[in-house]
Amino acid sequence: MSWKPDKDKPICPQLCEYICLSIATGVYGAGDKLPSVREMAVTAGVNPNTVKRAYEILEFRGIVTSVRNQGTFVSENTLIAKESLENMRRQKTAEYFTDMKALGMDAEAVKKYIEEWNA
Amino acid sequence: MSWKPDKDKPICPQLCEYICLSIATGVYGAGDKLPSVREMAVTAGVNPNTVKRAYEILEFRGIVTSVRNQGTFVSENTLIAKESLENMRRQKTAEYFTDMKALGMDAEAVKKYIEEWNA
Amino acid sequence: MSWKPDKDKPICPQLCEYICLSIATGVYGAGDKLPSVREMAVTAGVNPNTVKRAYEILEFRGIVTSVRNQGTFVSENTLIAKESLENMRRQKTAEYFTDMKALGMDAEAVKKYIEEWNA
Amino acid sequence: MSWKPDKDKPICPQLCEYICLSIATGVYGAGDKLPSVREMAVTAGVNPNTVKRAYEILEFRGIVTSVRNQGTFVSENTLIAKESLENMRRQKTAEYFTDMKALGMDAEAVKKYIEEWNA
DNA sequence: GTGGTCTAGACCACA
DNA sequence: GTGGTCTAGACCACG
In whole angstroms, what is the distance from residue A59 CA to residue A57 CA? Predict the structure, then answer.
């Protein structure tokens, strides 16, 4: 799994999603130490401020825990990450349906549309 | 069909979509005069500049034509509006799949997810 | 000579130019009565107000003379029309050189450019 | 090269031309960062919105690329700017010929006229 | 009253 | 500090 941010979208949420997914899939296990802000910034090719904010957001969601002078750690309960991921999926899907509705397709039509979707 | 803009998203594109859909569904026929910039601004509860911008975008796409001192008119070729609408749908769908992929679901998983979607 | 207004440009000045040219080339001779505002509006497919304004502009320039309840007449001195035409030519040409200068071409370059112009 | 907008014409297109020319002549090279919207607004003595609009137009033409929170950059392919400039020249020239035709001069006459032009 | 242009200034998320 | 979005309101030529 690699970090390929979509340049047209805000980086911070993308980074959040990426880390969250990494945790949910076990790349980082419960209690593991995440890369330091600077480290992550370098490997992700991103501004450290952005990483810092991403960590803060994840901490707010209870997915990670920051310990002063020690680093940022994955919460003991990795279930939260999984739920968070599922929430994001639901949100994006809901948004998608809303958008398609604005484009003149009701839920049924969208389902059919997706069914026949390719590429 | 009513105009209920999502407050969390840019109004201009939403307005574009709305007008485009109106044309595609025949609310405005080929050659019809659209409401004037100011008129539309009032009925949509939006700043005239925003409406003008939307009209400009639609004009660029060949969906409408603005004539100085006369008004803005639906293009003779209504097909363009329909195609434009379909393009938007495709784009949103593609984006959706990309997003879901970033959330750890491949195309197949997404299709199943959608199939079981409710609400 | 026929009246083919460029739809993308203001009609009034175009009409002025057209009438002025008609006088300069003898379509209307010195002292001749021009078509009435309404007449001209119909034949030119234009708003009567626009014709009226054009006549006013031409009168201001001394090219025609309006007589209350009688109509608009070509001035005795048609030379004025010819000079006016020449002024317009000069003005357009000067503007053209200015524009081309803004596009990075000096007078010499423009002259060469024109020399090789086709279509 | 200096920025002297013609007060009688829309500023935005003039600004576009100016920037385009700057790029075509190498003032800004491929990949270079253009002045920020606000910066350019100050140096050009123009409203930031107007600059933004110009940047948008240039972006649409593929001449520059705007990156959120980073700035606006000259496209890698500088050729586009040069072609765009040439297109503008062609367009202005074509318009000029059209105008002169409406003033009673055919292409040949115009060419002679230009040849003898001074000032 | 129409679209076209511009200014002024605000707020936003992001970096 | 960056671009992105929107509002408010002004003036213009044209019809």
Answer: 5
Domains: count for chain B: 1
Count the neighbouring beta carbons within 10 Å of the beta carbon of residue C50.
18
Domain membership of residue B95 as a residue range: 11-115
pTM: 0.93
| B67 interfacial to chain A (CB closer than 8 Å) | no
State percent of chain C over pLDDT 70: 99
Footprint of strand F on the protein (CB under 7 A): B 9-12, 46-50, 53, 68-70; C 10-13, 47, 49-50; D 34, 36-39, 49, 52, 55-56, 66-72
* Chain segment C44-73, per-residue pLDDT in tens: 999 999 999 999 999 999 999 999 999 999
| Residue D3 included in any domain | no
Q: Answer whether residue A85 is part of any domain.
A: yes
Region B29-51 average pLDDT: 97
Smallest CA–C1' separation from B41: which nucleotide?
Answer: F7
Model pLDDT, residue A57 = 95
Residue C35, domain member (yes or no): yes
Give C115 to chain D, closest Cα distance, Å. 7
Flag if D104 and C21 touch (Cβ within 8 Å). Answer: yes
Beta strands A71-74; A64-67: pairing state: antiparallel
Classify residue C1: in a domain, yes or no. Answer: no
**What's the CATH code of the domain at A60?**
1.10.10.10
Q: What is the pLDDT of residue D1?
A: 66
